[in-house]
């Protein structure tokens, strides 16, 4: 079961690049703010997201969904983040991921968010959630950077 130790730890020892806290005092719903990592096309952006934890956490992973528009190969068009550590535990029926790369109960809010920040800096275009973004990332970096820059600008104006 999720506990307040996670929140207390993040408040006591904040990590650079994001902030996270309960949404509406619901331990299973977290509001997240990710700051675009330096030296990436996302630099300067403020990206809001939600982490929704299942009732049987930590046996199953949370779902992370950006509320701020973001153009990225590993974020689908609805904002849902698609990275290995947020995939259900066990073997990948498609063979793209090792079971050791998928969800494990040792992951915390901090490890999830650090993985997402890493994903922003280094997309996995081999298994994309947004095929258009993956194609642009591989074949048309200028277009990719232009579309990301638009998301960064929008994130700055919607930041409150």
Walk me through what this model shows.
- The protein has 160 residues and is of the alpha+beta class.
- The chain has a single domain, classed as Roll (Ubiquitin Conjugating Enzyme).
- Helices cover 31% and strands 17% of the residues.
- It is built from four helices and four strands, in the order αββββααα.
- The chain has a four-stranded antiparallel beta sheet with strand order 1-2-3-4.
- Helix 3 crosses helix 4.
- The longest helix is centred in the C-terminal third of the chain and has 18 residues, at 141-158.
- The termini are far apart.
- Mean pLDDT is 88; it is low at 3-14.
Write the layout of secondary structure elements.
Blueprint: H1 4-12, E1 18-23, E2 26-35, E3 46-52, E4 63-66, H2 109-121, H3 131-139, H4 141-158
Antiparallel strand pairs: 1-2, 2-3, 3-4
Helix pairs in contact: 3-4
């Amino acid at each position: 079961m999720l506990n307040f130790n996670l929140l207390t730890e993040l408040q006591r020892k904040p990590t650079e690049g994001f902030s996270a806290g309960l949404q509406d005092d619901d331990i299973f719903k977290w509001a997240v703010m990710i700051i675009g990592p330096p030296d990436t096309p996302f630099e300067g952006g403020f990206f809001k997201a939600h982490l929704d934890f299942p009732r049987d956490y930590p046996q199953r992973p949370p779902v992370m969904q950006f509320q701020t528009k973001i153009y990225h190969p590993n974020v689908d068009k609805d904002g849902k983040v698609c990275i290995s550590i947020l995939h259900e535990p066990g073997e990948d029926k498609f063979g793209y991921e090792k079971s050791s790369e998928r969800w494990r109960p040792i992951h915390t809010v901090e490890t999830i968010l650090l993985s997402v920040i890493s994903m922003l800096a280094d997309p996995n275009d081999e298994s994309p959630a947004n095929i258009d973004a993956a194609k642009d990332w591989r074949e048309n970096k200028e277009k990719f950077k232009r579309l990301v820059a638009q998301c960064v600008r929008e994130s700055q104006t919607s930041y409150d």
